[in-house]
Amino acid sequence: MTAPQRILVTGVSGQVGTSLLEVGGAAGMALVAAPRTVLDLAAPETLAAALDALFPDIVINCAAYTAVDRAEQEREQAFTINALAPERIAGWCAAHARPLIHLSTDYVFPGDGTRPYREDDPVGPLSVYGASKLEGERRVRDACPRHVILRTAWVYAVTGKNFVRTMLRLGADRDELAVVADQRGCPTAASSIAAALCRIAARLAADGDRAPFGTYHYVDRGETSWHGFAERIFDGAARFGRPRPRVRPITTADYPTPARRPAYSVLDTAKIEKTFGIVPPAWQDRLDETLADIVAADAAPSSPA
């Protein structure tokens, strides 16, 4: 019997990395967690030696610099982690004939679209973060032909810093919140992305050189605004006895941030559905499941110190 492919996962403390270890582990995949102490993307010069020691069969890079606003002042660090480090990982993968799955973002697009963005639509990031992720895509493509780049958007999870957790925290203390209503996108559960990554990794392991490498989009099905997302969060949380504040719609101009956000971030998933048979669930359904998990996690007794 052939041994299962050893799949190295970076960014294991992040939302997608954490979910991937849970989802892949439950599916019996041979996942190898690479925390920052083992594989530090902020130190690209150390990556080749670390990968030599680990010597995985497949690499899934979930690690990234994701502080969108802070990146405007920390451009060098953002490009080191989001562009130079992925290039080094891709170079190692190419040298050892290993496939690389690399996560990217809707922020590579300018946000002026009127229909869901397809993989081959023109890019044009508005922020340092988006530019660094776009450069990472380019370097991965150039360095490693055996790659899958997976763009996603509006990610949230049970744990970590995300919009759902932020809304629940603020809603517990305030009777009214103001939320941007003129930016549209696709709320996407980290667990959904993890399931897609598992499906892709399994296909790459099975198909070898015949695998459908390239760039794909994955988001949960449907679209809304941040305001609509917040309304649904509080509607769902209220069923568990959580507070239900009023959510007042505002414009992007009413809530200025250091980094510009795309006004329209909806991604087209037809390609990944056709190629990998991955059919995204409705974002509302995944949100309801995540809210139930958050309530359960919050109610669980803390582990003794």
Question: How is this structure best described in words?
Answer:
There is one protein chain. By secondary structure, this protein is of the alpha/beta class. The protein has nine helices and twelve strands. α1 packs across α6 and α7 packs across α9. The longest helix is centred in the first third of the chain and has 21 residues. The protein is globular. The protein starts with 5 loop residues before the first strand and ends in a 6-residue tail after the last helix.
Sequence-ordered SSE layout with sheet pairings:
Blueprint: E1 6-10, H1 15-26, E2 30-34, H2 47-54, E3 58-61, H3 75-95, E4 100-105, H4 128-143, E5 147-152, E6 155-156, H5 163-171, E7 176-180, E8 184-185, E9 188-189, H6 190-207, E10 214-217, E11 224-225, H7 226-238, E12 246-250, H8 270-276, H9 283-299
Helix pairs in contact: 1-6, 3-4, 5-7, 7-9
Assign a percent range to the helix content.
Answer: 25-40%
Radius of gyration: 19 Å
Order of helices and strands: EHEHEHEHEEHEEEHEEHEHH
Tertiary shape: globular
Helix vs. strand class? alpha/beta
Q: Enumerate the strands of the largest sheet in spatial order, edge to edge or round the barrel.
A: 2-1-3-4-5-10
